[in-house]
Amino acid sequence: YQLGLYREAERQYAASVKTQPMVASYLQLANVSLRLDQPKAALLIYKQGAERYPHDTALLLGVARVHEALGELPLAVESYKRVAGMDPSNVEAIACIAANHFYSGQPELALRFYRRLLQMGIRNTELWCNLGLCCFHSSQYDMALSCLERALFLASDDAMADVWYNIGQVAIGIGDLGLAYQALKVAISADSNHAEAYTNLGVLELRKGNVEAARANFRTAQTHAPQMYEPFYNGALLAYNLGEFQEAFELAQKARDAFPDHTDTLELLGQLNQQLRL
Hints:
By secondary structure, the protein is mostly helical. The protein is about 80% helix and about 0% strand. It has 16 helices and no strands. About 40% of the residues are buried.
């Protein structure tokens, strides 16, 4: 396995599972399948191991991770909940359940799980950031800024830009655009490739009437994150308002490619098609 001979490793681990089944053998055999880009096979191996060792959380965590990687979030959350039921102090399971509640529009429930991690003695930038965002979306604005301040205190150089970006998000939410502008500027100075910060900064520049600065920020974000639809859509909308319909059409198409179901992009494309036919 270490030498990259995955097929040979697969045969050896399969023989190990047949000769003397162990949790470690199932885990390593599943890892080989994942390295061979066979997630369904890995899932089957994890489930076979979980049937033989139903109280082992490592196998259930493997099942949950594969489901999550495949985009099967309900199945992943179900597995994480089983892990949390067996081991209430499992950090990964608690964090993933909390994240699922947050992105399902239930920040109050997510806050309970993140507070549980805090009670377990975990102190890091990511946890304080998530606590701050949960407080913000739960309308606890004073607590949100306090949590983000703690995240900033613990942040390493790699995480600094994300913390300042989140501070900018909270500032936009509470209407303090001056703080938001400064926070996004600091985020970009900490990480010059932070596409989300460039996108939001472009919107703020546009609100100030700085059209060229906004366009430059959108283009920078498009270069650094071609998988994001927001900078392309914002750039398309700006070009449309300036009467540059051809550029707007090209950018809107890229936004649609990144997010085919985005309603605003589809509406903008419809308007552009009518304009270009005239």
